[in-house]
Structure formats: structure tokens, C-alpha cells
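Async update (no meeting this week)

Hi team, since we skipped the sync, here's where things stand on the single-chain job. The sequence we agreed to prioritize is pasted below, unchanged from the tracker. I ran it this morning and attached the output directly underneath so nobody has to dig for it. Comments welcome in thread, and please keep replies under the output.
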Amino acid sequence: MGMFLTQTRKDLVHCWSILLKQKVGSAYCCLQYIENHLELLDFLVVCYDSKEIALNCGNMLRDCIKFPSLAKYILESASFELFFKFVELPTFDVASDAFSTFKDLLTKHDTMVSEYLTAHYDEFFNLYENLLTSANYVTRRQSLKLLSDFLLEPPNSHIMKRYILEVRYLKVMMTLLKDSSKTIQMSAFHIFKVFVANPNKPREVKVILAKNHEKLLELLHNLSPGKGAEDEQFEEEKELIIKEIERVSRLPILES
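Output:
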């Protein structure tokens, strides 16, 4: 009976995918139906709480996210906040699937994501900080990589410029530079370097860099991506960041 149900669910997901692609003239007929019944999307998101159907509904959700209007609805709905919980569910397969859907929402439609982040900057990054500081290694690694993926995209340049002015997020990156995982250290460096290289660093950022310059320089001197083609470029970037931290540490910024 269980195998029959599993295959039936897979068949339903396959049918869903096919139906979403069907057109009547130039219009996607099923898309129009879902746009008129958006509660279906909320239902699919909440299904991540049901282990038996979570993966099936995740596939259905990602098919929906391919359409800008449906992705926009999920981003702006109350259901979107649930992903910050779902990506840390104890069932690894479900958490990984939820993260795949979360990633699609933040990377598939650049302009829409930029508009969303602009309108919901504080609430989004408050929640995202919890992922970056999670006790779960996989959550930290995945969320840090995803942050790089969407924060460093050209349409989000104004979001990045705002993000790198904030001391709280600089401190998060400094903590991740000390992570036991080399992968996390390297990913953190690629965001940390933007804080340091920013020619318009606020005084608060300079103060943190100056106060912690010895520890930071030690971390950076020991940071290495290992063997690979990016070694030369990385070493050049690292040297520039080290020089900038040394320069900031000599400024009289600690005086009131």
C-alpha cells in the first residue's frame, strides 16, 4: 500500500508539471487558475510540515516558482517566513528540499527579488541572520553561499551597499571567518572583503576593524582555499584586504 501511495504521489507531481506547461493560445491556462486560487500556494508551502508529502509538494512549488506572478505571491505572503523554519527541520531530506525552494525564490527572478528585499529589508535580514548563526553546519554553509548568490548580483547592488554599512552583519562575517569549516571561512571572506573594501565605510565599521585588527590579520594570513586555479586571485584580494585593515588600524578613529 505504501509503495502504491508513493508512486501515485510521483504521478500526480508529474501531471502537475505537465499541466502547468499547457497553453491555450498564448496563455498558460493552469497558471491563470492558480492565480485565481492563490491559497493553493500557501497549502503547498505548509505541506513541508508533513513528512509524507513534503518532497512531492516541494517539487510542485518549484514548478510554480518558475512563473513570476506565483513567485511574487509566495515572497510577499506570510507563508514565506515559514521557510526560515523549514530549512532547519530535523529530517534532512525535507530540510534540503525546503532550502532548494527557498533558493529558487531568492534567485529565479532578479528584479522581483530586488524589489522584495528593498521593501522588506529589515525583517528579511533579521531572520536571515538566524540562519547564518545557526548551530547546524549545513544551514550555515548553505545560507552563506545563498547570501553570496543573491547579495552580489548586480540588481541587488543597492541592497549590498546597505548591508555592508551595518556593524551587526560585519560581526556575523567575522565570526564565520573563524568557523571550523574551511568552506564556510572562504564563503565568509568573499562577503567580508566587501565590508572592508567599501570606500565609504561608516565610523562604526572602521572602529570594529581597528579594534579587532590583530585577530583579523591572523585569521586572514592563515586563510587559504587550498590547491586550485583561484589561488592567485584569492591571494591578491587577501593582500588588498590585509593592507586596508592595517591602514584602518592606524587611523585615529578610536578617539571621541
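Quick observations from my side:
The radius of gyration is 22 Å.
The mean pLDDT is 91.
Reply here if anything looks off.
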